[in-house]
Design goal:
By secondary structure, this protein is of the alpha/beta class. Helix content is about 30%, strand content about 20%. Strands 1, 2, 3, 4, 5 and 16 form a six-stranded mixed beta sheet that branches. Strand 1, helix 1 (about 15-25) and strand 2 (about 30-35) form a beta-alpha-beta unit. Helix 1 packs parallel to helix 4. The structure holds flavin-adenine dinucleotide (FAD). The site of flavin-adenine dinucleotide has 31 residues, from helix 1 and helix 2.
């Protein structure tokens, strides 16, 4: 196996795969690492449907030739641009087909350490191999950033999970389970658990669960008042999809605030029928303490008016979302962590997605504080991939064999000292 590449891409989800397709198209020598569509395969509740509409769920390729619609037509899967929720299984199959078509050379190995090197970076792989690259793009997704309230952190895994660790929930059949949260993940998990025979209660600090409204047929007035975008209808969303570079130019505090507030918790409209009247809620309540008992956990809940109640359950699920914090990326070595500038936990990025460590780039959710909420969704793959590939490709193509020789020599020396 060759051990030097111009660009290493860490991640084989929508962002890593899309970028790899763009870089390859531009003749850049790449190596791509990761497990294809891992988050969608392992970290989403089975039976879930996407919140993004069909037309907004394309993994971008450089010719726009392999949209979700094209795939569904080829695979004979029902598809509509809007108003027909995309199933998790269809999207997963699409991602896997995209990988086979555009990134067949994907190496299904995890990167355990990235370190700076004279030629750029050395990537230590889980099998002990060291891969050298001049540039590295991190597209490792959201799983490392799963956030749980401090009251729940530290509970044993048998009685506590995050919605990111979910899978098919078979082990929770017939159990009493509390799901903390009021967003799409919380409802998807609750519905799945109920279908497995668990007795589920949803607990949220909000006073109401705000389900999205279905788009339906929109009048001309509605279309003008709230134009449709890949992030949903509304003028704010128009700004987000049209102006990621404008967003980048805004003050840090503005950017952080927008990303935090944009699209608060809102379960999809099609979950409503399966939740309302079937799954009880406890609203306006925070978990203030969680103690393990012989059988499970005793939650102490404080209502917003101040009353306290105890709630014993077998298992508690935090469907409390994700918070980007690059310190949680354990594969970034100390020398990189020390040089990495941050904005509210996310990397500081240039207009070309390059971090304060030259040659190290971030795409996907980690880039949302720089380019706006679009980067949290598959819809952002077109902007990110085009921008990063156009920045990297000209330099990489003109790149002489000198750096390859340097890299090979460095690796040779490193091997002698190991
Ligand atoms: C429940 C839920 C529902 C969602 N629904 C939608 C939706 O409807 N529409 C939408 O647009 N977005 C949705 N999202 C957001 C979605 O996660 C992102 O849009 C998308 O997955 C981002 O793609 P990504 O490539 O950045 O990361 P991911 O899809 O998370 O992929 C990460 C990749 O990195 C790899 N990786 C991680 N660490 C390493 C390592 N050390 N070495 C090598 N590889 C590594 C993994 O193997 C994987 O291949 C949802 C998220 C959740 C949690």
């Amino acid at each position: 196996m060759r051990n030097f590449a111009d660009v290493a891409v860490i991640g084989a989800g929508p962002y890593g795969l899309s970028l790899a397709a763009y870089l390859r198209r531009q003749g850049v020598d790449i190596r791509v690492f990761g497990s294809p569509m891992e988050t969608w395969r392992d970290a989403m509740p089975v039976g879930m449907k996407l919140k993004s509409e069909g037309f907004a769920s394309n993994i971008a390729d450089p010719d726009g030739a392999f949209s979700l619609s094209t795939f569904c037509k080829e695979a004979n899967i029902p598809y509509a641009d809007t108003n027909l929720p995309v199933t998790l299984s269809a999207f997963l199959a699409y991602g896997n087909a995209f990988q086979k078509r555009f990134v067949a050379e994907l190496e299904q190995k995890m990167v355990v350490l990235v370190e700076p090197a004279p030629h750029g970076f050395n990537l230590h792989l889980e099998n002990g191999e060291i891969a050298a690259a001049r540039r590295t793009v991190i597209a490792s997704g959201i799983r490392a950033f799963a956030y749980s309230p401090s009251e729940l952190v530290g509970l044993p895994r048998e009685v506590f999970s995050h919605s990111a660790d979910f899978g098919d929930a078979a082990h929770l059949a017939d159990r009493e389970v509390a799901v903390i949260g009021a967003g799409a993940s919380a409802m998807d998990v609750a519905v799945l658990l109920r279908s497995r025979g668990a007795q589920v209660t949803v607990i949220s600090r909000l006073s109401v669960i705000r389900f999205q409204s279905p788009l339906g047929e929109r009048t001309l007035y509605e279309k003008i008042r709230a134009p449709m975008t890949g992030l949903g209808p509304g003028w704010k969303s128009v700004l987000c999809v049209r102006g990621p570079l404008l967003f980048h130019a805004m003050p840090k505090s503005f950017r952080v605030d927008v990303v935090r507030r944009y699209l608060g918790p809102a379960p999809a409209w099609y979950a409503r029928d399966k939740v309302e009247g079937h799954i009880p809620y406890i609203l306006q309540s925070n978990v203030v303490e969680a103690q393990t008992t012989g059988q499970g956990v005793r939650l102490t809940l404080r209502h917003s008016v101040g009353s306290i109640r105890q709630m014993p359950v077998d298992h508690v699920v935090a469907a409390t979302g994700y918070r980007v914090d690059t310190k949680k990326l354990s594969f970034l070595g100390d020398r990189i962590q020390a040089r990495l500038g941050r904005v509210d936990g996310a990397p500081t990025l240039s207009r070309n997605f390059e971090s304060t460590v030259p040659g190290l780039y971030f795409v996907g959710t980690s880039a949302a504080n720089s380019f706006g909420p679009m980067l949290r969704f598959v819809y952002g793959t077109a902007f990110a991939s085009r921008r990063v590939a156009n920045h990297i490709a000209p330099v990489a193509r003109g790149h002489s064999s000198t750096s390859r020789t340097t890299a090979v020599k460095t690796l040779g020396i490193a091997a002698k000292f190991r």
